[in-house]
Structures are given as structure tokens and as C-alpha cells.
DNA sequence: CGAAAATTTGATCGAAGTCAATCATTGTGG
DNA sequence: CCACAATGATTGACTTCGATCAAATTTTCG
């Protein structure tokens, strides 16, 4: 898949871009085929890029007191970055790790800002992507505040039915804010009432 | 304070706007002096406006199984709306309530979309506001996932030292995802160790 | 195949929730 | 402008969900 085809896909998914804008974007985007377990960003680093996932999946996670806590998963057609570092230019609190072999399109903040300033349609696209992310975060907050461990798990299954085939249970558990053991018990049909 | 002065303030706070853009914005914005306890939005309604708070403060809350759970507070210089309904055009899961007598500037979605399409600088401003909101939501998620009840409370005090003077403890407790009783115990100095 | 990683299962514990009963503050109608 | 009802906050007793610790079992992969 060429960079141009990927940018067409992004334009089709999120918001239409002019030919001139697509060309500008393609100019400074980098296609990255990378292996599973690659760390795109480490804690403390400055994350100056965001990544569009063409193929594969990735997660953002924290290490807190030795514990690995997943904060975000992204799959084909989505973006992933250390949002705190990318948008505030502070050191990243997150690691970003590939959960499968991936094909990514890397876009630097400088490039995004430049093209945003130049093309109204790209500024619009960025706004759309950020808005969608904001709404997903809002969803996650509702899930953390209202649901029991079991409901949280059923909720994520409703949104991503086959996540268990692609993401380790440890990561799903910490993403849901529950322990691995609790998730395991929830999944055991004997414990259903 | 005139609408024009308020829009200057928004422009100064978030991102610079051209004179022509400010004029367009002022044209369709409405200045609303409203009383404490007014509901701007009720559950189930379509929230077609966002509100810039010139003076006062407000909250978004859910009613779930008879329980009142605060989801968001906004003060002077910030925007408030039922973000889910405003951005997805679905019925609002939230109520929006004024916690003090307020002066608000109301902006409709239609108007925001129209001016965004017309003025690149306003599209940029909207992007900035949404990005800031997204980052605040991310902060809130970290707080819900990592902190004990006491840490969450200390955290919000660090961000908004005088929130307890303006917002009822019930609302703060439900916002933090803890019970009112637990918050009360945390605040009692005898229980500090 | 075997070592390491992932998951399951079991036993125990604790932070915070719930229920219930005051105590304090606020705002309104007489 | 006070009284008292309504709302908000505190305190106490008890319970529970899910965490933690520990060990066994299953899966993955070099």
C-alpha cells in the first residue's frame, strides 16, 4: 500500500482533503513496517509523532510502581500516540508498544501543525480526529465510573468483540481497571449467575 | 460586558481570531444571564448549543438508578455542554445545571459549524478547545485509575484549590467516583495518618 | 521438547460502599 | 427577620467487591 493510498483512506474515513493537501501530507509522512513488541515511545521521552495504523494494533501503557497498566488500544484505521506528550510537548508518561507486526504511517507534530496552518481542510480533519478521541475518552470515564468489573468487560466485548483474540488478558484487565485474576473469574462460565 | 468583549476574551484565551471572524461569531451568539439551579440541558434532550462561562460555574451530571453523579465542572473562561449530544447529535445522557447565578454566551452547533467552515482561524480555535478538553478527560481517567479516594481528593484540590467553596461536597464526591461519606471521612483531620 | 509467559484457581484481606442515625446549614414563608 | 423545614454534611456499624498473595495449570514459542 502506498503512502498516497493510505492518505486517501484517512481522508475517506475522517474528512475530505484536497489533492494539494494530500500531496503535502504524503511528502512528509513516513511508512514504517515494524515488528511486534517494538516500543514507539518510552516513558520520559518526547513524543513528536503520531502514528496511523494501516495494519496491526498497538497499546499505550503506564508503568506505575512496577505495574503495567494499559491506557489505550488502537487498531487498523486509528491513530495512536502518547497524547499527553504529543499535544503538550511534555515528557511522555506512557510507553507505546506494538502488539502485532504493524504497518504504520508516521506523522510528525511539526508537519501536522504546518499542514494544518496551510490547509483549512486538514485543520478540520485534525479537529474531527481529536473530537472522536475526546468522545472515546468520555465513554471510558463512564465505563470506569458506573460499571462493575463484569459490566466493564461485557462493555468492551460489545465494542470490540474479538479483542481477546488480539490482546492479552493482562492488558485488557488493566485497561478496564480490574485485576487479571478478577477478569479471569469473570470469564469463567462457572462463576456466572 | 458586551458580546464583542467576550469574544475578544475567548480569542485571547484560546487562539487569535480575525476581526471578520469575531464579527460573524458575535452576530449569532446570545448573551444569557441566568439564575443558579437553571438546567441548560436535560437528559434525553438534544443539546444543540455550547456555553462559554463569563461568570459563575456549572456542572454536567448523570442520573443513574436515582443517583446523581457529577461528570464535569466548568468555571469562568471555560465552555460547558453535553459533549456527547453536542458532538454526536444524539439525545443527551447528561443534565447541565448552573451552580451559581451565571452569565453565559451561547453558541449553537449550526453557527459553530458554519463559522468553522468559513474561517480557518475559528476551526483552529475549536480544535484547540477540543484538544484541551480531551487532555482534561485523559487526566481524569488517570485519576480514576491510579488514585485512592484520598489521592483523588488531594488531586482536585491541587488543581482547583477553592472548589469546596463553590461546589457542594456531594457533587465533588460523585465527580471523584467516591461516596459522600468517604469524602467526609477523608476531610476529617482526625482520620489523617 | 522444555522453559518462560500467560492464565486459572484458591484463600484471605482491606478500602470504600451502604445503610442508618444525627448534626449543621440554608433559605423561605408566615 | 425569625423559625423551622429541607437540604447538606458528619459519624458509626456493618458489608462487599474486588485486590492481593500464592500456587497450580495451560499456552506459547525458541
TrEMBL record, chains A, B:
Keyword set, alphabetical order: Kinase, Transferase
Name of the protein this chain belongs to: cAMP-binding domain of CRP or a regulatory subunit of cAMP-dependent protein kinases
Domain of life: Bacteria
GO molecular function annotation: kinase activity
Organism: Pseudozobellia thermophila
UniProt xrefs under InterPro entries: cNMP-bd_dom (IPR000595), cNMP-bd_dom_sf (IPR018490), RmlC-like_jellyroll (IPR014710)
Residues covered by the Cyclic nucleotide-binding domain: 13-115
Pfam family, one: cNMP_binding
